[in-house]
Amino acid sequence: MLCRLTSNVLLFVSILLFSAGAGKTNELPDFRDSIFNREDFFPLAVWLQIPEKALAFQKLGINLYVGLWKGPTETQLAQLKKAHMPVMAEVNAVGLNSANGNIIVGWLLTDEPDNAQPIPGTKKHGPPIPPIEMIRRYQHIRNLETGRPVMLNLGQGVGWDQWHGRGPRTNHPEDYLEYVKAADMVSFDIYPVTHPSPEIRGRLDLVARGVDRLIRWTDGKKPVWSVVGASRIGNPDILPTGDEVRRQVWLSIIHGAQGIIYFVHQFKPTFVEAGLLQHKDLSVAVKDINDRITSLARVLNSARIEDGVTVEEVNKVPAVTALVKQDRCNFYIFAGSKSRLTVEATFHVKHNIIDQDIEVLDENRSIQLQDQTFQDAFGPYAVHLYRFEKEAPGCG
To answer: Where do the structural domains in the chain lie, given as residue ranges?
Structure first.
């Protein structure tokens, strides 16, 4: 995504408002009627797409729009409502008062305020928008209405401290402890597959790192989403493969992301807003990813099973992270590696699961569980999704 201060008096007032505010800064307010409270809904969004493409994206399993160009407008909201496509949009009078406004399920703040900001009328950039100003903007929205969550998307500095695009705030990760106070939900974007820097290109682990950091910075009390590149973006020579997109999506989820936003713009060699839709193989892969996630939405939205498994690696260097979930009839281990090397891992299941063939979802294979232990190999940044059968009445 591409992307001041007010007077001292206004800043002081905003601090007082935020401190007294509409709830604790690190806790999500109780949006009882929100779509995000549905057990069967896992957000799978696209960023800043025209409403006319909503049906095409729905066919790929997309269930949410995030951002509207120069909107929301009445026409945009009417089109999205007709397509039954919910949207998160910036606050304006149309969104607040439109008869179609109920298609808006959340509000957006200024994108990537942590990056250096363009100076109007010049080709230069100034410093990032200060966190206190973003907190003020967040509180302004909360004062307008309290029924829908506010999302803040941050830039690649979340995963990469040396990102020079932050200008004078480069290598100041402490800023993010304040930025995350300016929203109910937080996301970030970094695109390692197509990244222009050789230092970052191919580093899929930075997606997981960014999710980890946002969860830590929010004390685990706010939903964290991950933005995944699914187009050439600004690199005309590289198109992500379906497997690269799948690894980033599942690494994000395994590390705690509660929503995925696909960035599908292409900027080079020519601009294409819905770049993903031009590539059949990648579109099919994204649909398969989304179909699998949607089929597991209730599982992914259920409580994490803490200490459900331990992972032992041959080289003793921690690389594989496991997310453990269950439903009435099945036990799941979603595991992913942050290493660019092949890793051999042994899993010790802490639940009383009978010996069986474990299904490895989407890989057309199984692995033997014996004495609550199994082994598997992980290629660079690989992910594996394991499903076990539980002994329960009516299952089997």
So the answer is: 8-300, 309-389
